[in-house]
Amino acid sequence: MLKYSKVFGLVAFVFLFAMCNQKSKNESEETILKGSLDVTVDETIKPIVDDQVAVFEGTYYDAKINVKPKSEVELINDLLNKKAKVVVTARNLTAEELKRFEKSKINPRVTPFAIDAIALISNKSNNDTLIALKSVIDFMQGKKDTGIKGLVFDNPNSSTVRYMKDLAKMKDIPATGVFSFKTNDEVIKFVSENEGMIGVVGVNWLSQPSANMTQYIEKVNILGVKGVNGNQYYYPSQNDLAEEKYPLARDLFIINCQGYTGLGMGFSSFMAGEIGQRIILKSSLMPVKTPGRKLNIRTQILKDKE
User: Fold this and answer.
1) What is the pTM of this model?
2) What would the pLDDT profile of 1-10 be if each residue is shown by its tens digit?
3) Which of 49, 215, 256, 277 has the smallest C-beta neighbourhood within 10 Å, fewest atoms?
């Protein structure tokens, strides 16, 4: 009897240990508001994502978002090759890309969260603060007499380069007259120090500059742009974005390929939700949903205290 009692005691101990261990494991598992997540971000829109992450982590203390900025080409390749599960992009997935996910039995959750703008900038010494988009396209196509000395991009693989190549219906950017660096900050700095150059950057880098970039942004003009078929010039402002007048607007998306209810879903919902959209509104971009406003209506005027 004593023998069986010892065996029973041992089994009970193992069972309780397993239960405690399982509980500890479950407590450390990722949820929509808990855990650690790598988010690969299009580097042209990194400032707005940094803002979202700061507020998200400040609200949900058990969540940690690691932002990894990359060019659009690198970002999409990582997503397709399953090196990245959650990404923030300046374009939606193509039909061909969706087919690749379908073959892998992955259903990407695509959430639009903002309307961004590509800004064209020039040196302050340039008195002309207006530019026709047709002139930029003509310059990229190698046509002369456009009035443009050179175009400056952030990265040959960036979303801004892809966007402008699509507009110009070109496979590659020109070999001459076009300069590329690595970051938007480098573009802004170069244009601020070189007359006649037109920089192509994400507008968020101008509206939310780092402390060390303020001196360079003060030396550039944000240009008003006339569309190919338009007669008016518009700026990358919230008003012109809201009225769909600015010709270089683009939608922003967060794409979640985690395949389970994890932190990617929580962060996506946050960015598209009330708080996330308010952050967008304050950043100079245009939210996809206008945040509501609460008004307190009084039925009578309160007298000042005597």
Assistant:
1) 0.83
2) 444 444 344 4
3) 215
